[in-house]
Amino acid sequence: MSMPSIAIVGGGAAGLTAAIHAARLGATVTVFEKNDHPARKLRITGKGRCNVTNHCTRDVFFANITGNARFLYAAWERFSSEDTEAFFEELGVPLKVERGNRVFPVSDKATDVVDALVRECRRLGVRIRHATVKGLIIESAVATGVMLPTGEERFDAVIVTTGGLSYPRTGSTGDGLAFAREAGLAVTPTVPSLVPLVEDGRFCASVQGLSLRNVRLTALDTKTGKTVFSDFGEMLFTHYGLSGPLVLSASAHLADMTAGRYELRIDLKPALDEKTLDTRLLSDFAKYQNKDFANALSDLLPQKLIAPLIALSGIDPRKKVNAITREERQMLLALLKALPVRIRGFRPIDEAIVTKGGVALSEITPSTMGAKRIKSLYFAGEVLDLDAYTGGFNLQIAFSTAVVAGESAACALNS
Ligand SMILES: Cc1cc2nc3c(=O)[nH]c(=O)nc-3n(C[C@H](O)[C@H](O)[C@H](O)COP(=O)(O)OP(=O)(O)OC[C@H]3O[C@@H](n4cnc5c(N)ncnc54)[C@H](O)[C@@H]3O)c2cc1C
């Protein structure tokens, strides 16, 4: 009896993981990867260190999924972050847990993660073929193969793991979304998530290159008056606006990007409450009482920020510090605790860490990752309408859904 054959379209995090789990159940697996090397995106994750997962509880995992979390209940049951950790340790990649429970290889090398997946694929006899899949073959609502530049090839089942639309130079160009549409499946609108933000103004450009650690960023929805995000961390001013981990996280909470809808506020001194900060200002002002105001803030702020902040305050930079009024000091205090930045949009999707939107989850059975209306067709990873915050959660989505897809495809064929 010949083994059931499975085609996996896309050799990224989800594709290689699905391949391993299908092959472990005895399926004959072929991974089609359009690049010369598999998992190009995985190689650049976590700044080249690969934050493979988050060492967290079930509740924390689901709290970090930005929508549609319920869909992942069964996948998490089958393959949780604990399983991801055990999986990579078994594959010979020792892991360590860092701040925020982020899990990285001890070696700090994302390539070790990729190499381990490829090595295990080889050990199991998975074929990795470097070819671009042009389309799926679907006959009478059954997936029966893939279309390649060289012609059609038949398989017993097909798993689509082509990723989203971000960082297209890694190979993720949304091909799977087109395949799903061609197959008649609904695809929800795709927008960037975990993406830098474009300022509606010139403040950020005036301090471009400045990186701030330990600030609090708050995003206010001016339409509802509600705070949609507030957290501590690191951020970066750029020529177009704001970037850095804190800003990427905030972006996942912003939806309608009509100019002026969101106002970001940066607390430059989150460790000091207003009273303590005022005392600190009074002490600095006493120290520099005979200096110009422009020269009185260097103990408190990075040099690059001083002139633009003073310009925002409206206080004359040449005014002597001992002439600064109480109201002026209060104005400065307000800016230090809530520096406003108006946002008018996201940077383009190709600069996003993940794509929000994708193959509609209503089309997919959560316990198998199989398409409800097309037999023998499965989806896993970022091609699905699933995304999460930073911290290793997006790769965990890829791994959990891939294990389920790989095993379901192999089991369905064996039964
Ligand atoms: C800069 C950056 C850093 C990140 N860091 C982290 C991190 O540290 N932790 C974390 O959890 N998440 C991180 N992410 C997100 C994470 O990388 C993705 O969510 C994850 O890679 C998705 O896996 P995937 O297998 O679904 O898709 P991808 O990794 O995008 O893989 C899809 C693969 O399919 C191939 N492909 C596409 N179309 C075809 C076709 N027609 N034929 C053949 N092959 C095709 C592509 O070439 C690609 O190799 C990061 C993302 C970026 C951009």
Counting DSSP E segments of at least 2 residues, the number of strands comes to: 21
Tell me the structural class: alpha+beta
Number of helices: 13
The small molecules bound here are:
flavin-adenine dinucleotide
Distance between the termini: 13 Å
Q: Strand content of the residues, in percent?
A: 15-25%
What ranges have pLDDT less than 50 throughout 5 or more consecutive residues?
none
Q: What proportion of the residues is helical, as a percent range?
A: 25-40%
What does this structure look like?
This protein has 415 residues and is of the alpha+beta class. The protein contains 13 helices and 21 strands. It has helices at residues 13-24, 40-48, 58-63, 73-78, 81-90, 110-123, 175-182, 203-206, 245-251, 274-287, 303-313, 326-337, 393-414; strands at 5-9, 28-32, 53-54, 95-98, 102-105, 127-129, 135-139, 142-148, 151-154, 157-160, 191-193, 197-199, 211-221, 226-237, 241-243, 262-267, 339-346, 354-356, 364-365, 370-371, 377-379. It has a 6-stranded antiparallel beta barrel with strand order 12-15-14-13-16-17. Strands 6-2-1-10-21 form a 5-stranded parallel β-sheet, covered by helices on one side. Helix 1 links the parallel strand 1 (5-9) and strand 2 (28-32). Helix 1 (13-24) runs parallel beside helix 6 (110-123), helix 2 runs antiparallel to helix 6 (110-123) and helix 10 packs across helix 12 (326-337). Bound molecules: flavin-adenine dinucleotide (FAD). Flavin-adenine dinucleotide (FAD) binds next to helix 1, helix 2 and helix 13.
